[in-house]
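Peptidase MA-like domain-containing protein: structure tokens wanted.
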Amino acid sequence: VKYFPIVFSITLSFLNATGAWMMSQRSHGELKWNTIATEHFDIHYHTGIRDIAVKGASMAEQIRPVLMQQMGLDTLRRLDIAFTTEDEILNGFAMPGNYTVIWVDQNDAGLWTGNEKWLRTVLAHELQHLVFFNTVKGPWWLPEPMNSLVAGVPGWVVEGLAEYYTEKWRPFRFDISHKGHVIRNTVHRIQDPHNDGFSKSLYLADRFGDSTITKILNHRNKAGFLYFESSFKKYTGIKLKQFNEDWRRHMNT
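Answer:
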């Protein structure tokens, strides 16, 4: 038991370094990679998708200042973005290590994006995660994943804010499934943080305002940590548990 924290930290560190392999369990040593360096990003791409990488680089530079303003950040370190088409995975992910991996060329498969192109949707979403990670980071001497464990930010906040700040509420994201839960009175049992996270973020912003969200995430206690539940109570006046119950009742009214 006494070695659990060490083993846990090492395990998460390995997971943080697995990259795209953790999605497909495949590696592609045959690919030749190149990098485009912009003012604030290093864009990594393999042969055959340079045009997409150039578009993504332009989008990233345009999206960056908006996301920083939303989160109340004045500075942001250089970020890495990797684009790939291998294995045709309809997804992307971002890590606290300040990098994101995104599968591109998925317009025909990404039906839930509506009339918006896949690249713009997923790139903005994943970059918001990176800006979020930099907003909630702890003291320099407390690296990830220990900082996340201390901060205790719920999963619905992480995913919900990425959707609230970069996407639109639409049939497949997640209006249809959400209405199904309302009809069955099971909104409090939603498992996917993307689903209830988007809904809760909309409710949080409507009830307390965007500025309150920024204050919650940028607050630090005397020890220099973000402790989410305390910060939430400080700026909303209610406990997180009460907020969840208020949201449930509001959705079912």
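The chain has a mean pLDDT of 89. Residues 142-253 form one domain.

Cheers.
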